[in-house]
Amino acid sequence: MQHYPVMLDQVIESLSIKPNGMYVDCTFGRGGHSSAILSRLSEQGCLLALDRDRSALDSEEAVAFLSDQRTSLKHCSFSGLKEQLAAINKWGQVDGVLFDLGVSSPQLDEASRGFSFMRDGPLDMRMDVSTGQSAMDWLATVTEHEIIRVLFEYGEERYARRIAKAIVAYRAQQPITTTKQLADLVTESIPLRERHKHPATRTFQAIRIEINQELIQIETALQQASSALTAGGRLVVIAFHSLEDRLVKRYLKAESGRKFDPGKLPIKQADIPKGQLKIIGKAVKASAQEISSNPRARSAIMRVAEKCA
């Protein structure tokens, strides 16, 4: 199946690529964004790509990517950005950092990864299958109270209590080991369904976020990216659901100084803190034309910021 990098033209434009620059793609996936960035770099430019999913590094796209001497591809989560840049003496010298958050198309399309309720497979959901606890193992031992918390907090699921109760009752009889088991269980637990949305959507999202500690990873990585950039460097982030985008929006607002509360007025200009980032434009969504050819772009929201001098 062909995979399309989301909002490719907007990403390239927003990065404002310098031919001799240093760029980081924190979510390589199948290399769509990375390839487009690389095509705009001169022989003096360089590109570091990261991915916590080992299968991304073993793909044909990765082999082709690494055939170029200007590139480097590392197996790590994007919260390992600082460590990777420090190892090549590029910390604070980066001209652009890209995050394409959430689960990738190849992960969704492969039933054995357990990310999708549309394909029956083992209930794994780990982005890095070499480490951590699978969704199956997590559901086997987690308390009902913790399931409720995760579904409420990461899935904004209004029927979290019903679903958690059903999960605990079901696992007392037999283990929940497949995506179909979980999807059917959730579907049976929900009295009302949202139009055009599978009943298990929120539950799968919530458990995936918990298993991979995604929001914590994003928060850490954003802080590192801001410090990694050189003056005038660009930070581009694509989010796919409200929790991700809310976190990114809040972070950019804080780092741009827009959340400053002066307390009592008047206040001296010198006492107003300057943020290390400047927000560039408004949030951008995929065009109708892109969505028609790539439906997964429907929920994508891109935000851009620039490192202040």
Briefly say what this structure is.
The chain has 309 residues and is of the alpha/beta class.
Topology overview:
Layout: H1 8-15, E1 22-25, H2 32-38, E2 46-51, H3 54-57, H4 60-66, E3 71-75, H5 81-87, E4 94-100, H6 105-109, H7 135-141, H8 144-155, H9 160-171, H10 179-189, H11 201-212, H12 214-228, E5 229-239, H13 242-255, E6 277-279, E7 284-285, H14 288-293, E8 301-307
Parallel strand pairs: 1-2, 1-4, 2-3, 4-5
Antiparallel strand pairs: 5-8, 6-8, 7-8
Helix pairs in contact: 8-9, 8-11, 9-10, 12-13
CATH superfamily of the largest domain: Vaccinia Virus protein VP39
Low-confidence runs (pLDDT<50, min 5 residues)? none
Beta-strand residue percentage = 5-15%
Oligomer: single chain
- For the record, the count of structural domains works out to 2
Determine and state the CATH class of the largest domain: Alpha Beta
Structural class: alpha/beta
Largest sheet: 8 strands, mixed
The CATH topology annotation of the largest domain reads as Rossmann fold
Tell me the Rg in angstroms.
21 Å
Percent range of helical residues: 40-55%
Give the count of helical stretches: 14
Number of E strands: 8
- Principal-axes shape call: globular
Span of the ends, CA to CA:
44 Å
CATH architecture of the largest domain: 3-Layer(aba) Sandwich
